[in-house]
Model the fold of this input.
Amino acid sequence: MTTKRSTRSETLEKIRTEKWKMLRLDRLEREQQLIHRDAVRLMLDTLAGHLRRFAVWCQKHAPPEVFDRLEEVMDQTEAETIKRLTQETHDPYNDH
Done:
């Protein structure tokens, strides 16, 4: 005959197991939504090419302050992108 303590222990273990399963399912769903790094790099390279062409156009046809501002924004964007891509990401499933 099982005691109240062992029954409670078994119940807690079942709850922990179910929570783990739910977390695992959630993680699997999130992993399917991730974009491969190479795809992100390709998109960023394409965007950078468009911006470079626009910068050349601005340099030829727009007042100097427009080109200067565009250059400043591009530098800020590059720095922020590098910062975000190199940051360690928080993984709640592997934190100990």
About this structure: Residues 53 and 59 are 10 Å apart (CA to CA). Residues 1-34 form one domain.
